[in-house]
Amino acid sequence: MTENSAPRDPRDLFDLTGRVAIVTGGSRGLGREMVLAMAAVGADVVIASRKLDACEELAEHVRATTGRRALAVAAHAANWDDMDRLADAAYAEFGKVDILVNNAGLSPLYENVESITEELWDKTLGVNLKGAFRLTALVGSRMAAGSGGSIINVSSVAARYPKPEVIPYAAAKAGLNAITQAFARTWGAKVRVNAILPGSFMTDISKAWDKEAFAKEAAGYAMGRGGQPDEIVGAALYLASDASTFTTGALLDVDGGYWP
């Protein structure tokens, strides 16, 4: 809201009707929850991940349950050209992008720090950082030249509290935090750029965790548990919508009180 504009009804602040959102890593986990939430409040969505069939399945579900338009695009976040192609596909289909969620990520396991290969390092930084940088540069520049928009980078508490078992991942997410704040300054009032720093969420990836070890760790969180996937939705809708018109460069922890 500008200084001279009339106050808006708070119930309308989260309405995304008429807006277009890209979500990378959008076919599962936290990305899926954000796709479904944004479509539910009116946005048309571009769902991107490496697996086109998973994106198509979710796109069909969005169309059937919300009536919103949904485009599925196969794209690997570590591939520079794929990010170019994803941006072009979104603008070709919808003519604009109002919201970009850089959610694609991975954290490969390794035995010890000496066993971290160049391939693992490059892959981790490629998916978590390089792709987000390229897509933000492409889409954010078009947003700034048009009517503006909101970019949300999905970082991690690992960027604040790095552990020995996630060094490449933590480094990538720390870099993501840095470019979040740099891009926020790049486009000023036209394009808001913020990051969500999730803690431990009980997505499908958590099925492979040692349940006993995780329960012991989670007991040290303020809330004493991991997050449910749909608990990311409030933060995502806040940053995507007009509810956050004076928020940019923020690093928002959504971690249940994760203080190791």
From TrEMBL:
Which keywords describe this protein according to UniProt? Oxidoreductase
The terms under GO molecular function for this entry are: oxidoreductase activity
Under InterPro entries, the record lists: KR_dom (IPR057326), NAD(P)-bd_dom_sf (IPR036291), Sc_DH/Rdtase_CS (IPR020904), SDR_fam (IPR002347)
Signal peptide per UniProt: none
Q: Which residues form the Ketoreductase domain?
A: 19-205
Which family does this protein fall into?
Belongs to the short-chain dehydrogenases/reductases (SDR) family.
What name does UniProt use for this protein?
Answer: Unannotated protein
